[in-house]
Design brief:
With 442 residues, the chain is of the alpha/beta class. It has 17 helices and ten strands. The strands form two sheets. The protein has a five-stranded mixed β-sheet with strand order 1-10-9-7-8, sandwiched between helices. It has a five-stranded parallel β-sheet with strand order 3-2-4-5-6, sandwiched between helices. β4, α7 and β5 form a beta-alpha-beta unit. It binds 5-phosphoarabinonic acid (PA5). 5-phosphoarabinonic acid (PA5) binds next to loops. The site of 5-phosphoarabinonic acid has 14 residues, from loops.
């Protein structure tokens, strides 16, 4: 079960209840496809529409990559990257990407333009039997296209054209974009990103499912978690029992009361990239028209030793949402020590997680005392099923929350601004006017 606890949110029950009609309106608009951005609502019933046959197709492709590759580079950025990274990190061993010994090493690229990053990746791949999953909905994103150009050539040179054809897979639009043209010309296996699913809502399409399957994880269980959460967040579920509705309502109530920053906090290092994925989901969906909560994230207790001061005592415009994992997958007890020089024998025999949980509770109480409202989202354990639940809960909460805020949660017009300037500065054909204008500003 995934639950949401608002008892320390420092918002009266009446203030949350005041949002019930707005939540109902947003849910209706999402269900009936009458809201802003209604051509991007394919994520709404995506989990329940995924068939076993579709999962089998993804698993078959993953098997080909597993059988033929020591490493697989997942090339993609933003919504074409963060979902897979988040799930794989959450489920993997903390000190390596591998959880299953027979799975290839998963590397992520195409999410930056760092020359050192790409050069070091190329160095690492020398002599390695690697494959590539090239993920881009538009098929034209510079970061990903540049990386793919380098990897395609290297893969063909290293493994030969025929094997390259087998181990390069495209996840892209059905018809348009350079990634589609290349996939069709070269005869790569390819998967389609549905038109009506935006990048940041696409983790349960092949964008996320294929890399997750290649990494050896159970995509059926991930989807089942999302399906169950889809039912739990449905329009017919009463407001008080609907976690996505509650989350959307409380964060809007807090925003109205002057809380402009939300930090997503975790107490499990494996959830670092949950924060990265969530920041894109909420930041890109709500940060527009001069509005929107600023989404930030912290890894605790690590960041209590860096950001803890600000959170406890800084400007009181912040609230936190903690993702709490009830049970770790492993057991480790604090050892007793005869000399007890560090004075920690009072912990001997306790589970490390008990200490972590007391740190979590102590931090919650301290932050609440310091005027930081606390929303607690709890999952039983870190496995595919519960990560699937979190994914859908946050997606549904985001759709509802953005509509309450009055923005179109499904577009991202602001993302184009840097691209236009970059292309003008690089002298891309077709950008001559912009090049002149930008040069005049320098
Ligand atoms: O959410 C989004 O739409 C963006 O983050 C995109 O996913 C990102 O810009 C990558 O785009 P594309 O998949 O077209 O390469």
């Amino acid at each position: 079960m995934t639950t949401i606890d608002l008892s320390k949110a420092l918002v009266g029950a009446d203030q949350i209840a005041a949002f019930e009609p707005k939540v109902a309106e947003a849910q209706k608009a999402l269900e009936e496809c009458t809201c802003k951005g209604n051509d991007f609502l394919g994520w709404m019933h995506l989990p329940s529409s995924i068939t076993p046959e579709f999962l089998a197709e993804i698993n078959a492709c993953a098997k080909t990559l597993q059988e033929n590759c020591e490493a697989v580079v997942v090339a993609g950025i933003g919504g074409s990257y963060l979902g897979a990274r988040m799930v794989i990190d959450a489920l993997s061993n903390s000190f390596g990407w591998l959880q299953k010994s027979d799975a290839p090493r998963i590397l992520f690229a195409g999410n930056n333009i760092g020359e050192d990053y790409l050069s070091e990746l190329i160095d690492y791949l020398q002599g390695v039997n690697f494959g590539v999953i090239n993920i881009s909905k538009s098929g034209t994103t510079t970061e990903t296209a540049l990386t793919f150009r380098l990897l395609k050539r290297m893969c063909e040179q290293q493994r030969g054209k025929d094997m390259a054809r087998k181990v390069i897979v495209a996840v892209t639009d059905a018809k348009k974009g350079a990634a589609r043209t290349t996939a069709d010309k070269e005869g790569y296996t390819s998967f389609i990103i549905p038109d009506n699913v935006g990048g940041r809502f696409s983790v349960l399409t092949p964008v996320g499912l294929l890399p997750i399957a290649v990494a050896g994880f159970d995509i059926a269980a991930l989807v089942k978690g999302a399906q169950d959460m889809e039912a739990q967040c449905g329009i017919d579920v009463p407001f008080a029992q609907n976690p996505a509705a509650q989350y959307a309502a409380v964060r809007n109530a807090l925003y109205q009361s002057g809380k402009k920053i939300e930090i997503l906090a975790n107490y499990q290092p494996k959830l670092h990239n949950l924060g990265e994925w969530w920041k894109q989901l909420y930041g890109e969906s709500e940060g527009k028209d001069g509005k929107g909560i600023f989404p930030a994230s912290v890894d605790l207790t690590t960041d209590l030793h860096s950001m803890g001061q600000w959170i406890q005592d800084g400007e009181r415009t912040i609230f936190e949402t903690v993702v709490s994992v009830a049970q770790p997958n492993r057991t480790l007890l604090f050892p007793s020590d005869e000399e007890n020089l560090d004075g920690l024998n009072f912990l001997a025999g306790k589970r490390v997680d008990e200490v972590n949980k007391m740190a979590e509770l102590g931090t919650q109480l301290a932050h609440v005392d310091g005027g930081v409202p606390n929303i607690k989202i709890s999952i039983d354990k870190l496995d595919e099923y519960h990560v699937g639940q979190l994914i859908y809960m946050f997606e549904r909460g985001c759709g509802i929350s953005g509509l309450i805020l009055g923005v179109n949660p499904f577009d991202q017009p602001g993302v184009e601004a840097y691209k236009k300037n970059m292309f003008a500065l690089l002298g891309k054909p077709g950008y001559e006017k912009e090049t002149q204008a930008i040069k005049a500003r320098l």
